[in-house]
Design a protein that fits this description.
alpha+beta, 891 residues, 32 helices
Length: 891
């Protein structure tokens, strides 16, 4: 092969063929193809090295919090509490299994990319056409294309006849790209503008052609995307990082307190004259029990359950979460980078403007939903629609819808909805098909007892063939003034982002033979202009307004032209007057520093490629933004994986984008993202409540043991009682808090900072002072039973303390439901699961107090009414103080 002298699209077909050592009519010889296959390898994307399933499962336990819980299992077993050890171990295994099942498909993105390759290709080799496996293609092969074919490799076109290629999976453009063979001198053209090239993973919409293969496998555009996708690492989410930090802090605290309690216990035993061996045993038993009780072993399971329930609720709203922790991440999102086509727009062309002669007629965006709102049946308007429907290869489908090129189906839909269908599409008797070089299509029809030629195409081409025009129902000569006026209307529509088509006609003799094509397409009469656009989804403006209230910024990233992007951005309210639209060419010239300086102020990007999307995401993340990236094409996959959360489209999205994402929108509705954000915020709020509840309760348990160790020679709470408190308060109540209903104004506040964890300094102080108040309740009731009620046995005082610690912690859960509303308000009872948890846990506590067999196991005594009164008063006092502080701060 000759040395390449420049980008393929900038070279003539002859130079490309010479560089690749290929013949356009004979192709490669079989021996040459075999040699090149040995050198270049098969035309398949390289499979990434897959992590074995056992290692992915084991990775679910590679967490500090899990290690602490594993130690808790050993401690419980050592203490003889085998049931508790089995329970903790079961929680660990269930948590690992759930995480493994949710994330086991995350590495399938590369497989989906490989499956997109066309399985067969029509290739010219040894001077004849033959069907070969796409994997056997090599640079220099000549591939034949026809309508409906998947394109198996990247290549330079050497022949194109009315060829249009659907490149939406790579470029994001909603309209098939017209292709030609002429070289494009600009060497820095973005992929969507290289009209003389075709690319793997795209497909032929209409027409036919031939191309010479220039790139295969990993060197194709889709192959480069695959490499970028494979290179992305899965970063831990904010919640995962926070839970890891929580686990470390708990472990350090528990270790320090357990050592202190052990040391003080030995000191107390020696003061009381207890034998050293006995003192060591008791002190060790209390320290170990305290360690087990202080570790919130239910936290990982509660987090998993809360996230799983969030996943189920989101699925009911058409948001399918593939990774549990993505729920929380979406809730803390500060910036959404959204694709345009199919996400913010409908991904279908619509006629939005009709200009008849010199009269514009705007069409309401919802005409398809209200077809009765028809354009007035003026003769010329009906004629425009008749030409659009007749000079058209799209066909209606039984049961609704249309088959064909998106632009032509849009024209047919407009004609069917806006005019009387019986007047449209007369019998076609001849045609001159569309060609990308001619930029027009002409058909001849039998209308009543006459023949008429209809033409549609680009305004500049059609107007150049018109000698007359229809104005106000009359045919008049095409004057220079009229021509300038129509061109101005065309430019006005284009400036608004419309794709424009002009339509014209010519009356033909019914007796004479049809003229030659060149003569047929002259002397036309201009009839009107049609403006088409991929319209925004109706719900998008409201969804964007909700994002603004929630403090979430949105940027649109599209492969479409800048004018189209600006028009859509303005229509949905994303782009203000005077704001800039940044193109891929501008991004190419920007340094990373310049992009980082500008990225937070840009709301619309146009003509971008996959590398640009990655740069945008990285620039936003450099500012500490939590970035959600939505997309549907192959080109979106690397950015979906790089973003904090990738959101793929389920209806029109590719397998690649779905497998690379954290969440899939089943309805492709941008508004679904808003609902997912709401759900994510609710989940995080609830997890924060759970963590604050568990840790403040555990602090109270630690303090009650630590403080009483200094003035009591015997433990005031027995090891089994500590474990029981931990069981009845860390289980059902914490789980109920994890499914707490959201507040009314959850979407009217700014996202929390990505740097702000759950245990910020303010929260740490909150845990300590609230835990101390809960401790004070226990001490108060213990002193009440031990000192203020003469005749009470130590067992009764211990039982009162035991019961008070259970009750005060259960009531504390109600106070944590809201940071502004009083615990005494009716809203406190809105969480029926929490009410059930209170009743259930207190019922279990009653069994421990009044069932003789259980009393013997837990060393308790039945409490009298006065004892219960003391317990209730002591439990309510700290709750009242905490509530008073909360309400005063809320003011």
């Amino acid at each position: 092969m000759a040395e390449t002298r420049g980008p393929w699209h900038a070279m003539t077909p002859d130079l490309v063929l010479e560089a690749l050592g290929s013949d356009p009519s004979a192709g490669l010889t079989s021996p040459e193809a075999v040699a090149r296959l040995a050198a270049a390898g098969p035309n398949q994307l390289r499979a990434s090295v897959r992590t074995p399933a056992w290692r992915r499962f084991a990775g679910q336990f590679n967490d500090f919090m899990i290690w602490v819980l594993a130690v808790a299992v050993l401690i419980s077993a050592f203490e003889g509490e085998l049931l508790d050890a089995v329970a903790i171990l079961t929680i660990l295994l269930l948590n690992g299994i759930l995480g493994f099942l949710q994330e086991s498909r995350a590495e399938r993105a590369m497989e989906a990319l490989r499956e997109m390759a066309a399985p067969l290709a029509t290739v010219v080799r040894d001077g004849r056409q033959q069907q070969l496996a796409a994997a056997m293609l090599v640079p220099g092969d000549i591939v034949v294309l026809a309508a409906g074919d998947n394109i198996p490799a990247d290549g330079r076109l050497v022949e194109a006849a009315a060829l249009r290629v659907d490149e939406s999976s790579l470029t994001g453009e909603s309209v098939p790209a017209a292709k030609h063979v002429e070289p494009l001198p600009d060497e820095r053209l973005v992929l969507g503008d290289r009209r003389d090239m075709v690319y793997a993973s795209t497909s032929v919409a209409v027409g036919r052609g031939r191309f010479v293969v220039t790139e295969t496998a990993g060197t194709t555009e889709v192959g480069r995307i695959a490499e970028m996708l494979d290179a992305q690492e899965n970063e831990p989410t904010p919640l995962q990082r926070e839970l890891k930090s929580v686990g470390k802090r708990i472990a350090l605290l528990v270790l320090a307190v357990a050592v202190a309690v052990f040391a003080v216990g030995i000191w107390q035993a020696s003061r009381a004259g207890v034998p050293l061996s006995r003192g060591l045993t008791v002190a060790l038993l209390v320290a170990i029990s305290l360690a087990v009780a202080a570790i919130p072993e239910g936290l990982p399971a509660i987090v998993t359950v809360a996230l799983s329930l969030g996943v189920r609720r989101m699925a009911e709203h058409n948001a399918i979460v593939r990774k549990l922790h993505a729920v929380e991440t979406l809730g803390s999102t500060t910036f959404i980078c959204s694709d345009k086509t199919g996400t913010l727009t409908r991904n279908e062309m619509r006629v939005r403007s009709i200009l008849v002669g010199t009269d514009p007629v705007e069409i309401l965006p919802d005409w398809a939903e209200r077809p009765a709102d028809r354009v007035p049946d003026a003769a010329d308007r009906a004629l425009v629609l008749a030409i659009a429907a007749s000079c058209n290869d799209a066909e209606p489908l039984e049961g609704g819808g249309y088959l064909g090129d998106p632009t032509e189906t849009a024209l047919l839909a407009a004609a069917d909805n806006l005019a009387a269908p019986e007047r449209l599409r007369p019998r076609r008797i001849a045609e001159v098909p569309f060609d990308s070089e001619r930029k027009r299509m002409t058909t001849v029809h039998a209308v009543d007892d006459r023949r008429v030629a209809y033409m549609k195409g680009g305004a500049d081409v059609v107007l150049g063939l018109c000698t007359h025009a229809r104005v106000h129902g009359e045919t008049t000569a095409m004057t220079e003034e009229l021509l300038l006026l129509i061109h101005g209307q065309d430019e006005s529509l284009a400036s608004k982002g419309y794709r424009t088509l002009a339509v014209a006609m010519r009356e033909l003799s019914a007796e004479d033979p049809l003229p030659e094509d060149e003569v047929l397409e002259t002397g036309m009469t201009y009839v009107g202009l049609l403006g088409l656009v991929d319209p925004p989804r109706a719900e998008v403006p409201e969804a964007l307004a909700t994002c603004r209230r929630a403090g979430i910024e949105v940027a649109m990233i599209t492969g479409d032209q800048a004018l189209t992007a600006r028009a859509i951005g303005t229509e949905i309210g994303l782009l203000e007057e005077g704001e800039r639209v940044v193109t891929g060419a501008e991004l190419e010239r920007m340094s990373d520093e310049a992009l980082a300086a500008a990225v937070e102020d840009v709301r619309v990007y146009a003509r971008v490629d996959p590398a640009h999307k990655l740069r945008i995401v990285d620039a936003l993340k450099s500012h500490g933004e939590v970035v959600a990236m939505t997309g549907d094409g192959v080109n979106d996959a690397p950015a979906l994986k790089r973003a904090d959360i990738g959101v793929a489209m389920g209806l029109v999205g590719t397998d690649v984008s779905r497998e690379a994402s954290d969440m899939v929108l089943a309805d492709d509705d941008f508004a679904t993202i808003v609902e997912a954000v709401r759900e994510g915020r609710m989940v995080f709020d609830n997890l924060r409540k759970v963590i604050l509840f568990l840790l403040s309760c555990n602090v109270s348990e630690v303090l009650i043991v630590f403080v009483t160790t200094f003035f009591s020679p015997t433990p005031v709470l027995l090891p089994l009682q500590l474990l029981w408190i931990n069981l009845v308060t860390d289980g059902l109540p914490a789980l109920a808090l994890g499914v707490d209903p959201p507040g009314r104004r959850i979407m009217d506040r700014a996202p929390r900072s990505a740097e702000e964890g759950i245990l910020v300094r303010r929260r740490q102080i909150q845990i300590l002072w609230q835990g101390s108040l809960l401790t004070a309740a226990g001490l108060l009731v213990f002193v009440w039973g031990q000192v203020l009620m003469p005749g009470h046995s130590p067992e009764r005082a211990r039982t009162m303390l035991f019961t008070a610690m259970v009750l005060v912690q259960l009531l504390h859960a109600f106070g944590l439901r809201s940071e502004t509303r009083s615990v005494w308000s009716a809203s406190s009872l809105c969480n029926r699961w929490l009410v059930a948890a209170l009743l259930g846990s207190m019922s279990l506590q009653a069994l421990v107090l009044y069932v003789p067999a259980l009393r013997q196991v837990f060393a308790t005594v039945p409490l009298a009414a006065t004892d219960w009164l003391a317990v209730l008063v002591a439990a309510l006092l700290p709750i009242a103080v905490i509530d008073l502080v909360k309400v005063r701060r809320a003011r």
